[in-house]
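Hey, I'm writing a tutorial for new members on how sequence and structure tokens pair up, and I'd like a real worked example in the thread rather than a made-up one. If someone can provide the structure for the chain below, I'll link this post from the tutorial.
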Amino acid sequence: MHLLTRRRAACRAATIPGMGNAAEARRSINDDTGPARRGGGARTEGLTKVYGSGDMAVRALADVSVELPAGRFTAIMGPSGAGKSTLMHCVAGLEDATSGKVYVGDQELGALSDRGLTKLRRERIGFVFQAFNLLPTLTARDNILLPMTLAGTTPDQEWLATVVRVLRLGDRLSHRPSEMSGGQQQRVALARALVTRPQIVFADEPTGNLDSRTGGEVLNLLRNAVDDLGQTVAMVTHDPVAAGHADAVVFLADGRIVDVMEVPTPDRVLDRMRGLGDVR
């Protein structure tokens, strides 16, 4: 494990109550059925995305080549209109590239049929959005298992128990969204994203609807998913504090990558964003 990741994991294990035994969680995912076996993360090669045509064409992404390494937490930042969400949507297979290539692991998305792309999104990609997108009539447990229910598959009970324990949801599984706080709902959304053991989890402004305390808890949980569950996370955010939880930050401006920062801190990220004309 990356040295910084080990230090962060050790620090959080000592300071965040209820996280469970990190070593035990790591052992549970380092066998031949854990997320790490898939490896590869995601990457793009010369990715370009254009909306419209002719004089009305808008180039949202221009020749973007970036890697989202396996087992790491990558933040994607930039001013409004920089192409952050478009990049995430293209890598997640929610939008087609105009040109260039997108890979999830060793699978090139452009080579897949519509059915194959749907299968990949269902089985290898998890999503956590600003809006929790929980079904109000379902319990937390049923919301967590919804992707597998729709796919007609059975959850791995040991893995489900690990996710529930790490995200501290054991006493909330029978509750409906209206009976939970915003932070608890976002934990359920994160559990839903993790339960299928995806190759990568995409988080789009996951703390945007939360107060600072609850948002910090969710960011710690995303960090914990990387360190203790072997997950790969890519997060779009405007928040330098949120980006400070990541292993690296990719900065976009005008549809192009303008910088990559390793070992980010909120102050360093804020200074870089000021340089891009975004001081929020």
